[in-house]
Amino acid sequence: MVVVLMLVCLGASAAVAVVYAVTKDPIAAANLAKTNKAIEEVVPSFDNNPSEEILYVAADASKPSETNKVYVAKKDGGIVGYAVESTTTKGFGGAFTIMVGFEPDGKVYNTSVISHAETPGLGAKITDKQSSFITQWQGKNLTDGSVNLNVKKDGGDFDAITASTITSRAFCDAMEIAANVFNNINPENN
Amino acid sequence: MSKFKYLIDGIIKNNPIFVLVLGMCPTLATTTSAVNGMGMGLATTAVLLCSNMVISMLAPVIPSKVRIPCYIVVIAAFVTVVQFVMQAFTPGLYETLGIFIPLIVVNCVVLGRAEAFASKHSVLESGLDGIGIGIGFTLALTCIGLVREVLGNLSVFDNKFSSADGMLVFVLAPGAFIVLGYLMVLFNKLKDRKKRA
Questions:
Q1: What are B96-146's pLDDT values in tens digits?
Q2: Is residue B173 less than 8 Å (CB to CB) from chain A?
Q3: Are B36 and B95 in contact (CB under 8 A)?
Q4: How much is the pLDDT for B1?
Q5: Does residue A25 fall inside a structural domain?
């Protein structure tokens, strides 16, 4: 009885190990392609490989261990933009992660949602790249204090998605984290 | 003919969703669109086919006291294999289905067929049963997903045919119950009519 159970487990784990070894590289490639695609969407065109030039920057200087990934996009050796990965825990369906692209002067170039668990048809509209909720961020400078990073309902400058105020607030929260991260990049780089 | 019957049985007479009413958790949760339902159905079919065949091979040598742990190990191994393959080659679908891929392990359909069918039949018959049940499961999930998508999102297989807003409730959880209920009634009515004729 014990022998049979052991043999079955042994066979099963051997099979899983083989498949793991075979699919390891394609999985890594798929993940990399996904990150690269997200970066391409949010920063101006670049010619380096941002996945190899990652900075780890803390959003809150008092908590240096909690860092966000910042991908640096360069063209002809000069920096054309930063893609900041930012995760908020305030989403309606739990945490969601967005990629925010900044131009070197702190203007938002574009944003893209990496992963989320918002309600389909309501909060999930944040993934619609043409929606006015996403496009309203483009060209705004979040880092010089010229805009109030809140939805209009809370006295801020940004429209919320209809019937998705919680998701919209969470999105603002993620943008604020990204802006803080961006502010903490520059001193380290210069 | 007699062997072929096992295949057809799985689709109509023993349809896992509408007749056996097994595996409701992935059915209700993943059918927000036809593509998602189909992806979930095909992943389950792959696991069902492999696990049914392997279990029917192993059944004679497994002592009955440890048969359930052995079945679970075999099923879990195949689910992990499917998970790796999907992650590598269909990352988009893998992301949408998320936690429900690993949860195929505890899908009642898979263990149910292993215990009720594969352990008592030959490898070929179990394989046919796996394919039949799998196709039945896939068709059912695709139908539910399609209805929910058309009513809730005004799209067919992710192609929007109208830019207006759909009836959102059908994409949300309550819509899954409503659609499943009506489709189950419809399926059984048609099935009974065929039997009487």
A1: 777 788 888 888 888 888 888 888 888 888 888 889 999 999 999 999 999
A2: no
A3: no
A4: 53
A5: no
Burial of A61 (0-12, 13-18, 19+ CB in 10 A): exposed
**A5 closest CB neighbour out of B66, B152, B165:** B66
Q: CA geometry: angle at B17 spanning B11 and B19, to 5°? A: 75
Backbone angles phi, psi at A122, to 5 degrees: -115, -90
Number of structural domains (chain A) is: 1
- Alpha-carbon distance B57 to B54, whole Å? 5
Q: How far is CA A179 from CA A40, A98, A114, A164, B64, in A?
A: 19, 12, 17, 23, 62
Any idea of the CA torsion for A170, A173, A178, A179, to the nearest 10 degrees?
150
**What value does the mean pLDDT take over residues B159-183?**
84
Average of per-residue pLDDT across B49-77: 88
For residue A185, being part of any structural domain is answered with yes
Asked whether residue A2 is domain-assigned, the answer is: no
Whole-number pLDDT of residue A190: 41
Helix (H) or strand (E) holding A170: helix A165-189
Name the residue range of residue A94's domain: 42-189
Nearest CA in chain B to A118: B172
Determine, yes or no, domain membership for A20.
no
Residue in chain A lying closest to B67 (CA)? A5
Q: Which of A105-109, A180-184, B25-29, B156-160 is predicted with the least confidence, judged by mean pLDDT?
A: B156-160
Q: pLDDT at residue B71 above 70?
A: yes
* pTM of the complete model: 0.77
Q: What is the greatest pairwise CA distance in chain B?
A: 59
Portion 17-56 of A in contact with B at CB < 8 A: 19-20, 23, 26-27, 30-31, 34
Q: What is the CA radius of gyration of chain B?
A: 17
User: Touching check for B63 and chain A: CB below 8 Å?
Assistant: yes
Contact list in B for residue A1 (CB cut-off 8 A) is 63, 65-66
Task: Please tell me the distance in Å from A190's CA to the nearest CA on chain B.
Answer: 38
Strand partners of residue A115: A97
